[in-house]
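Page 37, continued from 36.
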């Protein structure tokens, strides 16, 4: 079964047409990338799939569950990490993960979830430092751990490496690959074309609320006679 099917998705904010008939499919086990210029509709699409925003029209299924009519079922199998997510600054990293785990489980299951979260975050001794002392990179690792610790089937990551330095972004990409290998299907958005090419099995390019391209990075490069995805992007996006 496909991880995600988005069919004829429309979203208006009052007069503004943010999504103008979006279609794409994420297969089970894939890392799928959404790319597109500022304001193209990426975050709106991710928020709708995450059940946080209503659909104007269209249909979305996550592992066969309808986002509009079975939103509780969808919430049980997804995890969404917004670009601007934060954690409670007064808690230590470990206490924050335990706090989040307490919403999902008790006793041994809760301890196991925290253990797994700590493994994903891989913060060493700093897991016992207060979150307010974390660098941006450490914070992002903690938030990814939070998003993954309950072992969702489908993870939605908005701009997960934005604002990070080269080493931190590299390490976050490694974490994402590990998560995918553990069997989680992943939908991410990014403005970093190197990252998309490196991480994603397939990508969709959104422009003015429509998917204008969809395919593997290699296939898209070939189709456009381009050396990299940045070149594909520039050629495909209308001014
Ligand atoms: P970016 O790359 O800059 O994050 P994006 O591709 O994620 O952009 P969206 O944030 O989904 O784009 O925005 C799509 C369109 O919807 C834009 O025209 C934006 O101005 C509009 N929009 C988004 N949120 C709202 C809102 N709450 N109210 C009104 N318009 C909105």
């Amino acid at each position: 079964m496909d991880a995600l099917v988005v069919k004829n998705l429309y979203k208006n904010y009052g007069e503004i047409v943010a999504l103008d008939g979006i279609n794409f499919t994420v297969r089970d086990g894939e890392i799928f990338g959404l790319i597109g210029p500022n304001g193209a509709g990426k975050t709106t699409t991710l928020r709708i799939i995450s059940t946080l925003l209503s659909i104007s029209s269209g249909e979305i299924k996550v592992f066969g569950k309808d986002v509009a009519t079975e939103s509780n079922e969808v919430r049980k199998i997804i995890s969404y990490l917004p670009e601007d997510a934060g954690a409670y600054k007064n808690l230590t990293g470990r206490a924050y993960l335990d706090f989040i785990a307490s919403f999902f489980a008790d006793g041994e299951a809760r301890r196991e979830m925290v253990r797994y979260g700590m493994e994903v975050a891989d913060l060493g001794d700093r897991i016992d430092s207060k979150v307010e002392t974390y660098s941006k990179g450490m914070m992002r690792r903690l938030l990814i751990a939070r998003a993954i610790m309950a072992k969702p089937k489908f993870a939605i990551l908005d701009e997960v490496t934005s604002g990070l330095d080269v080493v931190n972004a590299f390490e976050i990409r490694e974490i994402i690959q590990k998560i995918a290998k553990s069997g989680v299907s992943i939908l991410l958005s990014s403005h970093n074309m190197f990252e998309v090419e490196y991480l994603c099995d397939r990508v969709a390019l959104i422009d003015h609320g429509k998917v204008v391209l969809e395919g593997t990075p290699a296939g898209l490069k070939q189709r456009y006679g381009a050396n990299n995805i940045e070149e594909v992007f520039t050629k495909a996006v209308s001014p």
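The pocket of adenosine-5'-triphosphate is lined by residues 13, 16, 18, 36, 38-44 (CB under 6 Å). Flag for discussion at group meeting. The two ends are 37 Å apart (CA to CA).
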